[in-house]
Amino acid sequence: MDIRDLVDNNGANHISLQAIKGDHFGKEILSLQCSVGQLVKFIEVDRTVQRDILDYHVADIQQYIQYGIDGNNIYFPPIILSARGQGVYNIHTNEYKLKLNERLALLDGQHRLKAFEFIIKRLEGKHDVQSVEQCKFVKNFPFTLQIFLDISLEEEKQLFTDVNTKSSKANNTILIMYKDDDLCGNLVKDIIENHPYLPEDAFETRAKYTRT
Predict the structure, then answer these.
(1) CA distance 74 to 53
(2) Rg, C-alpha atoms of the chain
(3) Contact 190, 205 (CB under 8 A)
(4) Which residues contact residue 87 at a Cβ distance below 8 angstroms, ignoring those fewer than 6 apart?
């Protein structure tokens, strides 16, 4: 699905997003995909809902993005937004139109976007061929969006709180097992897969520290 600038009969510029409308626990929600470069054009951060930026978290995400730039597959969960009455959805064409001065409130994903912004700024400061291609890759990186059309400010705060407090961190051993072409990962997989009775989550891989 793509984004493109349109001009209507009155000459007003719009951003048009191809989207699928659905229902999420009784709330109307749009699901769509667009690039990082497109996304930053129509979002805003409301500090009454969002927390302060955590620099170490942004730095970690930048390292992960660099892992993708280096040719590896990377994945990010959907960006969650609230429409707050902005935009109009056409059920016949599956288009969600936003005026160029309309903005959607960012509920979850600000650290991801900040990390992408830092990477783009760094690459734009260079002018060699490799950096130009890398910057193009980062700007075109696809994000899945979930846009809530009809939730209140209190519901936004509740959603933000639930997303950031109810999730649990993946077991470090599982993460290591998922690494490709990694000696430690291969050793861990071999030990776990050949153990007669212990399940994967009963093992813990550690170096200098442990969480248990």
Answers:
(1) 22
(2) 21
(3) no
(4) 96, 97, 98, 99, 102, 104
Distance CA 110, CA 95 (A): 25
The answer to whether 81 touches 17, Cβ cutoff 8 Å, is no
The per-residue pLDDT string of the chain (212 residues; one tens digit each, 9 = 90 and over) reads 444 444 444 444 888 889 999 988 889 999 999 999 888 888 888 877 777 788 888 999 999 999 999 998 899 999 999 999 999 999 999 999 998 889 999 999 989 999 999 999 999 999 899 999 999 999 999 999 999 998 998 898 888 887 776 655 656 666 666 666 677 778 888 888 888 888 877 777 776 555 55
Phi then psi for residue 56, to 5 deg, are -65, -30
Please report, as a single letter, which amino acid is at residue 188: V
β-strand pairing of 79-82 with 43-44: unpaired
**CA distance linking residue 198 with residue 206, whole number of Å:** 17
Give the strand pairing for 27-35 and 20-24. antiparallel
Token look-up 């291609």 returns: 133
Is 0.90 surpassed by the pTM of this model?
no
Q: Report the b/e string of 70-104 with b at 16+ CB within 10 A.
A: eeeeeebeebbbbbbebbebeeeeebbbbeeebbb
Q: CB burial class (10 A; 0-12, 13-18, 19+) of residue 33?
A: middle
